[in-house]
Amino acid sequence: MMATKNARLGQRLKIIFAAALLALCAPAFSGDFSEYEKTLLAEIYDMRARSRQEPDYLASQKFLEAYHNKILSDDVQSKISDEAKLVFDNLLTLERWQYLWETDPKMNGLKEMIWTQYERIMDWNAAHAFGEQNAYLKLSSFDLINSTMQYMTRGQMIKLGLQEKKVYDKLLETNQNNCVVYLNAGQFYYNVSEVLSGAKPKAKRIYERAVAIASNAYEKYFANIFIAQMFLEEKDMDSYNKHIALAEAAIPGTPYMIFVKAVNDKGITLYEYALHPIKVKQKVFGTK
After folding, report:
1. How far apart are CA 248 and CA 255, in angstroms?
2. What gap in Å lies between CA 30 and CA 137, rounded to an integer?
């Protein structure tokens, strides 16, 4: 029973749309990254967005694995800082893990794949002052840690969650026009709503801000999908349809939107899907 509760809380705390934030453009706060590193960061986001055009999760993972191997090549590694290496590995490892997890959450090797990266983050934090870290390193690390939480004890999850809350609140205060911060923070607050009073209304306000400040097609696409899920949960179908239409207008004809609408048409939000992917796939598509 405790293992089940831990898995559920871990799923609530994990960033539900890790496979979605992937598609945002490189954020403005890439800190002390060199111009080459900033170019690579933007390219990684492009590749993560490109992976969504693959026909299924396994094909997407294979595509990303090939790109990850390029980033891990001696030529690229010799030109980037250790901090940039960790950021890029966080982004690509999480993306590859997410696709495989969505295919089969019990797949052999999944825990080892993400836990190894989690330990790299913990080693880095032990050796470097947190306050001096690149802001995007913090966000990419939190994304990965949140997905790793399902393999932790409840006490570990709560401790890490409280640490994240402080950082997200600070980032919301200091990055009021950066959509990626609002998308990450909105997901965090939604996912801790079972254990933090007032978190869900705050998540909605954060998403509303994300919609308002979204400055490119990808930001508009995901900000509107995210808030649409909350309106679906509230059974406010007029608002749901409005935001889904805005998302479709931002990036027309994506396979991901076909999936989103199929799940939502059954009255199921993407938040619920992330908690019970196999059960939802069986209900919506008749398959695992």
Report:
1. 11
2. 9
